[in-house]
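Bench notes, afternoon.
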Amino acid sequence: MAATPLAAGGLLSSRGAGAAETYPARPVKLLVPFSPGSSTDIAARTYAELMARQMSAESVFVENRAGAGGTIGAGVIARAPNDGYNLLYSTATTWAIAPFVYPDLSYKPARDFTPIAVTIAIPTVLVVSGDSDIKDFKDLAARVKAHPEKYSYGSNGVGAHSHITSKLLANRMGAPNLLHVPFKQGSQGVMTEIMGGRLTFAVDAWSVVGPHIKSGRLRGLATIAKERLAVAPDIPTATELLGQDFDTTTWNGLWAPAGISADIVKRLHDAMAVGHDMPALVTQFQNQGTPLMPRMSGEEVNAFMKDQIVRWQAFVKEADLTT
């Protein structure tokens, strides 16, 4: 079943018949395929409140279903009824990365999902323990290149954004065989091991690492973004440090199972878009290091997501996760 273009008109599908007239008539679920406390989980809860207000919904609630780089939860929504009550709030991982990492993926993104909105950008920060004797990026790069067997990095799971970004960094630091340790517990598990000195480095969103950097438990070595973060202007970008372009900024988006009514898609899209007109929300996300993505029409959302598939296919190929 082909994904429904966001701006397209049309009648309700058989699975969603009757939903548009009263939608939402019962609680709406946003499934986040990552652990509680992740940057995506934090954003989903903010948008759930916004959507509930804008649509006068009984409730919009978040359910976490982590595992396999987000693909377990995404698969659940791909098979859910397309009546607007089961939605996926996720990242580029489940849409643009997973198809090139998991050969037996239980869903096909473009076939099984309808894109609804793109919400926030998620730049990441490379961190080490605050107690580490690794003082800066140059020091880290020199050490892992000279003695890769002594160092390691953690991620939120095999094929996750944090895995690919860390592997790309390891490649460019001259240590492609650096030990990778994936965590089912997600960001919290990784950061616990970094702060405890049992892993060397990791990358994650500012909303995850920022409080620990401020407290001194983590040290930020590089920002993985086009430019330095407004909330952390003293942390240089990886592009500055490597002397070559390096930006794997990911993003959050909202999807529904394919075949959903175009009327419901538009209502959901419009409810999410209101966030751009709320200065407090814009500032909140800016301060979390996850600024809003540019406002996009339905057609622009679809075009953006198609482009991201091409972008991440190239990143996955370069990362070479088999090494």
